Amino acid sequence: MTFPERSEPAFDAAERPMLEGWLDYHRETMAMKCAGLTDAQLREASVPPSAFTLLGLLRHMAEVERGWFREVLAGEELPELYSTEEDPDGEFRVTEADTWAEADAAWRAEIAAARKNAAAYHLDDFSQGVGSAGEAFSLRWIYLHMIEEYARHNGHADLVRERVDGATGD
């Protein structure tokens, strides 16, 4: 596993590059929180009996990327990656068979799809799909929500990482 580089967002960018820069910063932070750990460490629960793990968190973020940029923004009809109707939190339930390689590949594929879909929209354009209450969202709203989602979960990841091996950081 290689340690990712993280780029600081520009201080003087226009709005869209600023939003994209902050989202990428938080994506890279998530990768940093998981870097250098074994699959077993990535599956280690934060505080047993909780099932909250770094691997589950990365899988969750793959689902979130997929949900907002593919299903809501672009209106694609897709199956969930890890969850089911019977187990709506399935991404958090990792087993010995679940690996970093698979989760990282799925997450990065969803990020690539997100970037591609977002490139076709202006910030004020509304989504082709809708949220759970039937509302459409602007790309600007989706970017801001995703920055918030990553920022919150990066805080969770920092605590789990400290529990796993004592490492802390921003």
List descriptors.
170 residues; Four Helix Bundle (Hemerythrin (Met), subunit A); 5 helices; 54% helix; 0% strand
Describe the structure.
Helix 1 (15-34) runs parallel beside helix 5 (139-165) and helix 3 (54-73) packs parallel to helix 4. The model has no long low-confidence stretch (mean pLDDT 94). The chain is 54% helix and 0% strand. The two termini are 20 Å apart. It is built from 5 helices and no strands. InterPro entries: DinB/YfiT-like (IPR034660), MST-like (IPR007061). Pfam families: MST (PF04978). This is DinB family protein.
What is the alpha-carbon Rg in Å? 16 Å
Main beta-sheet strand count, sense and barrel state: none
Oligomer: single chain
What do the pLDDT scores average to?
94
- The helical percent reads 40-55%
Protein name: DinB family protein
Q: Summed up, what is this model?
A:
The protein has 170 residues and is mostly helical.
Outline the secondary-structure elements:
Layout: H1 15-34, H2 39-42, H3 54-73, H4 100-119, H5 139-165
